[in-house]
Amino acid sequence: MITHDLQSAMSDVINGLKLIEIDELSGENQIHYDRACSASDTLQRMLAVLFDNLKGEKNDLATEIRAFELAKFVSDIQRRWHSRASAKQIEFKITSAPNLPEKIQIDRTALERILSNILENAIKFCDEGLVQLDIGINLDENLMFVVRDNGPGFSKEALNLLYEYKGRPENSAKSGTGLGLHIVKRLVDQLDGTIDVFNQTTGAFVTVEIPYSSWRVSEQSSKIPDDEFDLSGLRILLAEDNQTSQMVLRKQIEGFGAIPTLVDNGLDALRQLETEDFDAALMDIEMPVMSGLDTIMQLRKRDDIKGAIPIIAVSAYVMPGDREKIMLGGADHIVTKPVTDAAAFRATIGATIAAKSDENQRRFATQKISREPLIDQDIYTALESSVGREDMHELLSKILIDLKSVAGALKKFVAAMDVAGVRAQTHVLVSVAGAIGAKSVQKSAESLNISANHEEINQVREYYLECATGLTKLIVEVDHLKQQNAFISS
Predict the structure, then answer these.
(1) What SMART domains does the record point to (predicted)?
(2) Pairing of strands 143-149, 259-263
């Protein structure tokens, strides 16, 4: 669970930063803001690698590598390290060759860690002048990263211990652990690259060369343009209980042109899906009242089109056991929070909807879904005849008030597992549903009442879901009948 809590906390930091109105910040504070954003994004990716190691991955590289824009990557490096250099009153500069590729496909976290360790050393040992990062590409199409500074350079002792674990001279002028270049060498080796460290009269030079085979963009990635998936006008249900994550995800979804509907627990997600049509659902896993996993599993029990809605789990879980449970529970895809790559997020939503739509079209092409009417027409007609059409409107209004009251009370009592309260409310619901002819709701209320009487907690939860779903539909139906009755009477 600590992995989930760490990811959730990191998600709040990143999402909170995204909600800051940067136009209102002073120039200096905008620099600090940029640095915090860049560092938090890097930390999030490093946490993912750390958790991969905890689950048994033995190297420092991430398991999923996507193509990303090199210019944006360079901009992030500039944002993060400019303020660090400014704090020491030295200049930080990046130069990029004009022939650089637009995108590269490499483990971004590894590349960030390589450059961060080198730049941190350069800024630490440089007390005046300039730290510069030059990025280029040679004739073999290998990427070149050269960091140079105006510091004192590496001592002879330091050069002898350069890549060793805690390889640090005893009388070093600056504090540190001696791990930086040891980490860099491991990561460069895993990328099949090379590193060269030497001194010149102007200070230290560190050159990292990444071969073309390690950064080239695969054909599959190059075939997917950023705008391939148009989500304009699509309705997306977002089930998320964290308000910061709600706001950030809502803004992202709206930015894709889609229309989000927000709920903060799994039960409300089920009720929303029952009464409205959506193109996809984004489901947090850890939510109150009913978890996202339980919600997904309940949906997949249905044998109709609503039960086959495309579902993307948006979760801080990263361990393989958690992922396996979520996928086996019925999710179509998992996105790890916080969602920092908007383009990849949009592509994931679009691809999931497209794939699921094709699957559902095949599955339901010849299937005719017939449902028993929610309200028995004979019972309803008899009720209307006994009270008269004019008084029926008032009766329907009272029934609607009772149903809404029961729905709210049941939700509260089940959440607190107050079986006495559940018994009282289901007793009312059995009477009201029976009077209007809602046999299925009446039956589920009776089952829930019996479970509450016997204090069968698991059964109470199970029957409550069935009862609450039917009750939500009944409220919509009674409201419709009330409006219809008012129109006929007028």
Answers:
(1) HATPase_c, REC
(2) unpaired
Please determine, for residue 61, whether its predicted confidence score (pLDDT) is greater than 50. no
On the question of a cis peptide bond just before residue 288, with omega within 30 degrees of 0, the verdict is no
The pLDDT of residue 460: 87
Query: Please, are residues 195 and 185 in contact by the beta-carbon 8 Å criterion?
Result: yes
What's the CA gap between 314 and 316, in Å, rounded?
7
Cα angle for residues 365, 366, 371 (degrees, 5° grid):
105
Strand bridging mode 203-210 / 143-149: antiparallel
Residues 6+ apart with CB under 8 A from 32: 83
**Percent of residues, the chain, with pLDDT higher than 70:** 78
**314: helix, coil or strand?**
strand
476 membership: H or E segment, kind and range: helix 457-489
Cα(406)–Cα(429) distance, rounded to whole angstroms?
A: 7
**Burial classification of residue 219, based on how many CB atoms lie within 10 Å of its CB (0-12 exposed, 13-18 middle, 19 or more buried):** exposed
Q: Does 365 score more than 80 pLDDT?
A: no
From residue 368, give the alpha-carbon distance in Å to each of 355, 359, 427, 444: 22, 16, 35, 25
What per-residue confidence (pLDDT) applies to 165? Answer: 74
Q: How far apart are CA 261 and CA 242, in angstroms?
A: 15
Q: What is the mean pLDDT of residues 429-441?
A: 92
Tell me the CA distances in angstroms from 410 to 121, 272, 419, 448, one per residue in order: 61, 17, 10, 10
pLDDT in tens, 128-183: 889 999 999 998 899 999 999 988 888 888 778 777 776 566 666 665 566 778 88
Q: Each residue of 175-208: b (16+ CB within 10 Å) or e?
A: eeebebbbbbbbbbeebebebebebeeebbbbbb
Distance CA 116, CA 73 (A): 12
pLDDT at residue 262 tops 80: yes
Start-to-end C-alpha separation, the chain: 60
3-state secondary structure of 372: coil
Beta-carbon contacts of 292 under 8 Å, excluding residues fewer than 6 positions away, are: 239, 266, 269, 283, 284, 285, 286, 313, 315
Measured distance CA(209)–CA(455) in Å, rounded: 68
Q: Quote the pLDDT of residue 35.
A: 65
Q: How many DSSP H helices and E strands does the chain contain? A: 18, 12
- Phi, psi angle pair for 83, to nearest 5°: -70, -35
- Judge whether residue 40 has pLDDT over 50: yes
Q: Quick count: other Cβ atoms within 10 Å of Cβ 78?
A: 15
Amino acid at the residue 17: L
DSSP symbols for 408-420: HHHHHHHHHT-HH
Do residues 184 and 117 touch, judged by C-beta distance below 8 A?
A: yes
Confidence band of 367 (pLDDT split at 50, 70, 90): very low
Quote the tokens at residue 159. 């050069």
